[in-house]
Design goal:
13 strands; Cytochrome p450; alpha+beta; 5-stranded mixed β-sheet; 439 residues; 49% helix
Length: 439
């Protein structure tokens, strides 16, 4: 059984050389017979066996990692021992940076990294603000007319507009938005697609063709030197790289473009949708954030960012991070064999009562009051940690905070209904529509 300590502290690891404790086969069969979600099996394993546990869905056991020290060991300290497997979205994103490995991944990440830190981020400030203003204007119209709208759809529209402006320099037009609706359609279909690659591509061929057509037009415009009202975008950086780096073919540029669209709007849209649903259940959190300081003040911005951070604690962008052990290793005192599948689960780490006080309570104050959150780097990782952590962390935090600055003071969604459960797919997202009016 798992041992329990004061929240925020870490229990002592076991002596080195022990086998990873494995969930009893009868409990796995009971879960399978009940048709439960994977997260239910993960939760049972963590609760019964602790932060490094195993279960068997195939001949070889799978190792589940939620202990912060083990999380850091796998993702940050020894990424060469625990490698990323082929990305589940590969039929959509191809060889983009999320799916790339080895030297190709290193080259692609180096090119993109400078775009999302320091001076690189500053060039996107105006684009983020304009997308937020466009959304705020729509919401003002909804408030005036009393129209029922879907909050999740609105958040996807904002996030896609933001990343499209950042990629191309142009605001998102209605025709492009309609064509790019194929992106979430493909993402949603992935968990149920055939295992065979050709069959999987055939099942979503029409959607992939629409996405490819949009990408092809955008790349051609960038090659022709077309610059939008915001100036050149990240797509222009990729096109220019092709002049000196032969690996940046039209196909790789397409893959990076689609990767950035998927990573840059799907997860952000779900984070913002979850945030509005959580504020609906916890209205005092909204009032406390707005009372933290006047509009535009550092105090209010910090409070709004804490709303986002606490939402990401509940629903991290990457709820599960699969890896494979390349060699025998000792992980938090347990032996892990080469070839073992290892699943790091930020979702459960973020809800561990040994780390977080009252973890099921929505409490943004954890991120504004010193000493309120665990300090170990493996305790909070909504975008991963280590060399493969999400490149767009600062971008995502900035765009979500800017949108809240525009929406929260003026509008409170009143939901007509809310999803009864979450869906655990490529991301963890609300399991249904989110219709609302504004008050």
């Amino acid at each position: 059984m798992a041992t329990h300590a004061r929240p925020g502290s870490l229990p002592s690891p076991p002596p080195a050389g022990r086998r990873v404790p494995e969930l009893e086969p009868a409990l796995v069969e009971q879960w399978r017979a009940g048709g439960g979600e994977l997260i239910d099996l993960f939760t049972r394993a963590r609760e019964r066996l602790g932060g490094v546990a195993a279960f068997r869905l195939a001949p070889r056991p799978t190792v589940l990692v939620t202990d912060p020290r083990a999380v850091q060991h796998v993702l940050a300290l020894h990424p060469d021992r625990y490698v990323k497997r082929s990305h589940r979205a590969r039929l959509l994103i191809g060889d983009g940076v999320l799916a790339a490995t080895g030297e190709a991944w290193q080259r692609q990440r180096r090119l993109l990294q400078s775009q999302f830190t320091g001076p690189g981020m500053r060039r996107y400030e105006q684009r983020i603000t304009e997308a937020a203003r466009t959304t705020a204007a729509r919401w003002a119209s909804y408030a005036h007319t009393g129209e029922v709208f879907d909050v999740g759809d609105e958040m996807r529209r904002f996030a896609l507009d933001t990343i499209w402006r950042s990629l191309t320099g142009h605001p998102l037009d209605a025709d492009t938005a309609r064509e790019l609706a194929a992106v979430p359609t493909v993402v949603a279909a992935m968990p149920s697609l055939p295992a065979d690659g050709a069959a999987a591509r055939g099942a979503v061929a029409a959607e992939l063709a629409r996405i490819d057509a949009v990408a092809s037009r955008a790349i051609a415009a960038a090659r022709d030197g077309a610059v939008g009202p915001h100036g050149p975008g990240l797509l222009h950086v990729l096109v220019e790289a092709a002049g000196t780096r032969p690996e940046y073919t039209d196909r790789l540029i397409r893959d990076e473009l689609v990767t950035l669209m998927v990573a840059g709007h799907e997860t952000t849209a779900y984070t913002l949708t979850w945030l509005h649903l959580l504020l609906d259940r916890n209205p005092q959190a909204r009032e406390q954030a707005l009372a933290a300081g006047p509009e535009g003040s550092p105090e209010r911005r910090q409070a709004l960012q804490a709303l986002v951070q606490e939402t990401l604690r509940f629903y991290p962008s990457a709820w599960i991070l699969p890896r494979r052990a390349e060699e025998d290793d000792v992980l938090a005192g347990y032996e892990v064999e080469a070839g073992a599948d290892v699943l790091v689960c930020p979702y459960l780490t973020h809800r561990d009562p040994e780390l977080w006080e009252d973890p099921e309570r929505f409490d943004p104050g954890r991120f504004t009051t010193p000493g309120r959150r665990p300090t170990h780097p493996g305790s909070y990782l909504p975008f991963g940690i280590g060399p493969r952590a999400c490149l767009g962390l600062q971008f995502a935090l900035r765009e979500t905070t800017v949108l809240l600055e525009h929406l929260l003071p003026a509008h409170t969604p009143r939901f007509r209904s809310t999803p009864a459960k979450a869906v655990y797919g490529l991301t963890v997202h609300p399991g249904g529509p989110t219709p609302a009016t504004l008050r």
